[in-house]
Amino acid sequence: MKTKSKTHILEKTLTKLKTMKLHHMARSLEERLGRPDHRDLSVQDYSGLS
User: Fold this and answer.
1) What are the CA-CA distances from residue 5 to residues 10, 21, 29 (Å)?
2) Which of 20, 25, 29, 43 has the most CB within a 10 Å radius?
3) Per-residue pLDDT of the chain (50 residues; tens, 9 = 90+)
C-alpha cells in the first residue's frame, strides 16, 4: 500500500474513532503510529494489536 494512501486511511480511522467517542482507542492508535517498530505494519495489523 502506498504511504500516502495508508496515511489517509489511518487519519480517517482516527477521525471516526473520535467521532464515535472511542477516545482511548484513538489515542492507542496514535501512540502505535509513533512507535518505530510499528510503522511498517498494515492497517489490518494495527487493528489486531489492541
Assistant:
1) 9, 25, 17
2) 29
3) 456 777 888 889 899 999 999 999 999 888 888 888 877 777 677 666 55
